[in-house]
Specification:
The termini are far apart. A five-stranded mixed β-sheet has the order 3-2-1-4-5, with helices on both faces. The protein has helices at about 60-65, 80-90, 100-110, and strands at about 1-5, 20-30, 30-40, 70-75, 90-95. A hairpin with a 2-residue loop joins strand 2 and strand 3 (about 30-40). The chain is globular. It is an alpha/beta fold and about 120 residues long. It has three helices and five strands.
Amino acid sequence: MKIAIASDDQQTIASHFGRTRGFLIYDIEQNKISNKEYRINDFTGHARGMEGADHSMDRHSPILAALKGCQAVIARGMGQQIYIDLQKAGIEAFIVNEENAEQALQLYLQNALEDNPDQGCVH
């Protein structure tokens, strides 16, 4: 299984999913990390300079394609629409208070990661 965590510094969880510098992608086998990579964010709407763009556009296809194969995505904040779009694509979305990426990953693997969807932003 693969888990994606939004991170600006490859250690802490970014405060906003769409504005993150990149994503830590963890491969998990038997509840242990078997591989870890960092993907630079050049696919979210914010990263592609679509700030303030018409929300009727399909801005989320590139991010959904980039995270295809991930079971879950973790961030400290994200817009409501991407939260919904991730779930529709079969990817669990988590908005967390946790700051440490690997601690959040361990909580997820223990089914103890708390999701706070009400902390998402509206734009």
